[in-house]
Amino acid sequence: MVGLMPSNLMESQALQKKDYTHYNHTDACSLSRWTTKECYQFMYARPWQQVNDFYLDMVKGRSSLLDLFGKETYAIHDGAEIVEDCGKSQLASVPAADRTGRWARATFKIVLSYHGGSFNGWQTQPGLNTVQGLVEKSLGKFVDEKKTQQLKEKNLPIEACALVAGRTDKGVTAFKQVCSFYTWRKDVKPQDIEDAINGAAGKIRVVSVSKVSREFHPNFSAKWRRYLYIFPFNDETEGDHTSLCKKNIVDNAVFRHGHGDQCIDEAIRGCAVDVVDNDEAETENKPTRFDVSSVNHLLHQLEGKLLSYRMFARDTKASRNIGPPTECFVFHARAAEVLLPCAQDGTCTKTMCIELVSNRFLRKMVRVLVATAVREAAAGAGEDALLKLMDATCRRATAPPAPPDGLCLVDVGYTEFDKKSCLIP
């Protein structure tokens, strides 16, 4: 009988034999542009722990975005005024005492702040610690009697159903995430909801709870989303990032997810697997430094334009690659050099902050944009490089997603976007 080969050994051998092809760029920067492997090495070899610590302090209320930018440069748009007015005329036509069915339903808007490194993303997944799972479990005590009975008959846990403005990926922090749920119970108060979630949560905090029109939807009612990406610079020479790659990736994997995370596995493979690269001889001479101003110029070209999901999103179905729904309108895209607040030892970390505001983003789109902008800036590409990439023939033309540690969903707007609210002017 032939012995069976361990699955992990088979996977390891398969990885060693696999050929990784790269997109054939034909512009003048093709020899200076990083491969997928080199992008992983450069992006993951960062002091991400300091960014994680800052985000955790921000979620707990010990720091804020004002500590980064030094002055109050933006106003929080919670959209309460517009969602309260929505459907007011309809509600007025039905006497309060006679409201039944959908008219009697109470909808609550919940603004949350949570630390991405402490959760396995927003969306509920069996056996994993997710924000949605925690929120819905906390709201279970406010479910009406009819739904409670239905859940019991199906042997399901008594949990509410929470809608959200945007499902953040594993490791992504949110400063003012917006979600909602509804109930037919008339005794539920906003303070009850806040106390229930805060009492059951760890690294999550309720910013506000308000009662809104039943027509309010945190996703479809939103007019824009604002993301901030904090990219920390190394104290070491940027050109020596290769030797730091494996250590930083493993350290970050243990900190964020423990062992076995698919995204981190892919990053580690990028360092461990021999990649077939026709330009391997020139790899050592590729630039690893870039100017923040170059990244800013690249991103600035996106403002006021429709950006295709086809090149800059990941893990989407083929049907999402064609037609108007596969585009987003970019309101604001800027980058600036900012000092991360001093740590306990009195040292400050030099970082690059990237602010992106759009009417919508698809999965991993912000992280792909960040990594691609950094790669193009280091290669010395022209200011229209990101726009030209939309005409590429496959997604290998763009860089792999940047680590989730640096990404934060700042807020969601339900009124028209105001340029005066920008973090980076």
Automatic annotation (TrEMBL):
Entries under PANTHER family matching the protein: PSEUDOURIDYLATE SYNTHASE, TRNA PSEUDOURIDINE SYNTHASE
UniProt cross-references to Pfam families, sorted A to Z: PseudoU_synth_1 (PF01416)
The protein's name in its UniProt record: tRNA pseudouridine synthase
Residue ranges constituting the Pseudouridine synthase I TruA alpha/beta domain according to the UniProt record: 350-414
Highest taxon above the source species: Eukaryota
Keywords: Isomerase, tRNA processing
GO process terms (BP): tRNA processing
Reaction(s) catalysed (UniProt annotation): uridine(38/39/40) in tRNA = pseudouridine(38/39/40) in tRNA
Similarity-based family: Belongs to the tRNA pseudouridine synthase TruA family.
Listed GO MF terms: tRNA pseudouridine(38-40) synthase activity
The protein's Enzyme Commission number: 5.4.99.12
UniProt entry tagged with the keyword RNA-binding: no
Species this chain originates from: Forsythia ovata
InterPro entries recorded: PsdUridine_synth_cat_dom_sf, PsdUridine_synth_TruA, PsdUridine_synth_TruA_a/b_dom, PsdUridine_synth_TruA_C, TruA/RsuA/RluB/E/F_N
